[in-house]
Amino acid sequence: MVENGGCKDGNSTLLNGKYDLGRLLGHGTFAKVYHARNLKNGKSVAMKVVGKEKVIKVGMMEQVKREISVMKMVKHPNIVELHEVMASKSKIYFAMELVRGGELFAKIAKGRLKEDVARLYFQQLISAIDFCHSRGVYHRDLKPENLLLDEGGNLKVTDFGLSAFSEHLKQDGLLHTTCGTPAYVAPEVIGKKGYDGAKADLWSCGVILYVLLAGFLPFQDDNLVAMYRKIYRGDFKCPPWFSSEARRLVTKLLDPNPSTRITIAKIMDSSWFKKSVPRSVRTKEEEEMEKEKQYDESYFEKTKLQPETLNA
Ligand code: ATP
């Protein structure tokens, strides 16, 4: 238990006498994520701060507990690592591996990726998802905003806030909660008749692969119902610059019928996926990440958080 969650000590904000809180890195619906430093070992972490009141109000406390259990379980090079969890009267703190390269989303916002670069990220995404599924964990909210990049150009899956365990399956062996982000959600999840979490995650991976290669979404419409109709029908077109192998894989992932949708084993065996990524692609990505590195130690000193911000 944190006795002095976010107290002021001199000029800085100390958390449990252990972490020095720095700048805000990002925020989601329920959480703010700060750069923090472990005073014992000097290592930087990402500190996710979740307000209990807000979470309880919308009945999401069980979900937060689930996020913690899942993150403790899934240790993989392409999944953000949870170091420890602390709590004060009003907040829950997740001390996580700091991923310094920002969201994959920001990269795509600058334009579509070359196939070799997209392949590198997609291989890492599938490796992480395969690991989760083998442990009975389904992410259920895969999208480029939840995929972070480290300085080495490695992809890290985060935000297991909507994840499910296989033990949540109903008697029919399916999950029944409709969740996710509309543009990335599988047709059978919208259909509300129950779905296989693994198949639904693979659909989202298909949307992500399409977005990486195209620079825009496969299913778009200002009207949500019209967009869902397109998703149901699997009504999308690959742009002419997709290679025929990429086109084949995207089409097999975005199969509206979950029982014929491609499996992870078959993805890994597909010719597009199996191609090795040239070293030059990795090096270039690493160099770019290094240039974009925003959170160096001197920056941390200049941007230390004031306690009133934390309580806001
Ligand atoms: P949502 O509303 O999508 O459920 P959330 O409230 O659970 O989000 P996160 O998505 O976990 O919050 O984090 C919010 C943002 O903080 C991320 O989009 C990212 O920009 C940043 N962030 C999260 N984790 C890390 C990390 N480990 N390292 C660096 N930045 C991070």
Poorly predicted segments: 7-11
Number of helices: 13
Average pLDDT number: 85
Q: What percent strand? A: 15-25%
Strands side by side in the biggest sheet = 1-2-3-4-5-7-6
Helix content: 25-40%
How large, in whole angstroms, is the Cα Rg?
A: 20 Å
List how many beta strands DSSP finds.
11
The span between the termini is 21 Å
Protein structure class: alpha+beta
Largest sheet: 7 strands, antiparallel
Ligands (ions, cofactors included): adenosine-5'-triphosphate
Question: Which H/E pattern describes the elements?
Answer: EEEEEHHEEHHEEEEHHHHHHHHH
Polypeptide structure, described:
With 312 residues, the chain is an alpha+beta fold. It contains 13 helices and eleven strands. The protein has helices spanning 52-57, 61-73, 104-109, 115-134, 187-190, 197-214, 224-233, 244-253, 264-268, 271-274, 279-292, 297-302, 307-311; strands at residues 7-9, 12-15, 19-27, 31-38, 44-51, 82-87, 91-97, 137-138, 147-149, 155-157, 164-165. Strands 1-2-3-4-5-7-6 form a seven-stranded antiparallel β-sheet. Strands 8-11 form a two-stranded antiparallel ribbon. A two-stranded antiparallel sheet has the order 9-10. Helix 4 (115-134) runs antiparallel to helix 6 (197-214) and helix 6 (197-214) runs antiparallel to helix 8 (244-253). It starts with 6 loop residues before the first strand and ends with a helix. The model is unreliable at 7-11 (pLDDT under 50). The chain binds adenosine-5'-triphosphate. Adenosine-5'-triphosphate binds next to strand 3, strand 4, strand 5 and strand 7.
